[in-house]
Amino acid sequence: MKALLRNPTTAIGAIMCALIVAAALLAPWLAPFDPVDQNILDRMQPPGGDFLLGSDVFGRDVLSRILWGARISLVVAVTSIALAIVIGGAIGMVSGYIGGKFDLLVMQVMDVLLSFPALILGLIVVALLGAEIHNLIIAITLTAIAPFARIARAPVLSLKERAFVEAGRALGFSHARVLFVHILPNILSEVLVMGSLWMATAVRTEASLSFIGLGVKPPTPTWGGMMRDGFDSILDAPWLSVFPGIAILMLVLGLNMVGDGLRDATDPKLSGS
């Protein structure tokens, strides 16, 4: 924690993420208007006055939609990466612990998943299942399982040969106890660091899918969907796409800063730097 707090970059990233999370949680009180309320008389208002960040083609307040859209991005990112950590981490740990042909087979399946770009795999899953928030979570989870399986498997291959694991087996501990009680704590930091970095990828993937029309259905506000809605008016009303884009940039940048700081703080090779 001391190493983490000493890093100014990490502190800035944590503040950025905290502000976005707070804005999402307080959206019902911070948003000046209903995010889906349409008023044709107020359409395409530039930033300023009653509409601090302007209004869109349906007269909806851009600021209110950005605040509510943060909830979608955070829910999808946190839920999908949490599921990927649990599923992918368990697969990687069990595969590395058992080893042999089972490990080879599992890793070949993971290699097949890794051969698909994250956005393409997510596009396939959402196109098959439909544009719903739970399908978005499933799609992004599938794209992240293989990397987490890989990152969990690698240290298990060396840890299972260590003396404390051999001692646990000699005392009659079950394989599940050895794996999840004694090995898991030794790899948890690496998995969590990668989780913070992959949350940024999940935010980008969700925004990309929403931009091409495979995200949460309108009129629910999403940052990617707002950028798509304002794309045709980018020259006449740039605020429609620029402000949601800045929101995505801030969240992704903040998550990457925090992830880099966690990596530096938990890596013993960098503890003296």
List keywords for this structure.
11 helices, MetI-like fold, 73% helix, 273 residues, mainly alpha, elongated
Structural overview:
This protein has 273 residues and is an all-alpha fold. It has a single domain, classed as MetI-like (MetI-like fold), CATH 1.10.3720.10. The two termini are 15 Å apart.
How far from one another are the termini? 15 Å
Strand content: under 5%
Unreliable stretches: none
Number of domains: 1
CATH architecture: Orthogonal Bundle
Radius of gyration over alpha carbons? 22 Å
Characterize the main sheet: none
Helical coverage, percent range: over 70%
What's the CATH topology label?
MetI-like fold
> On the 0-100 scale, what is the average pLDDT?
87
What does the overall shape look like?
A: elongated
Q: What series of H and E elements makes up the topology?
A: HHHHHHHHHHH
Going by helix content, strand content and strand pairing, the class is mainly alpha
Helix count, per DSSP?
Answer: 11
The CATH top-level class label: Mainly Alpha
- Look at the structure and name the CATH superfamily: MetI-like
- Count the E strands: 0
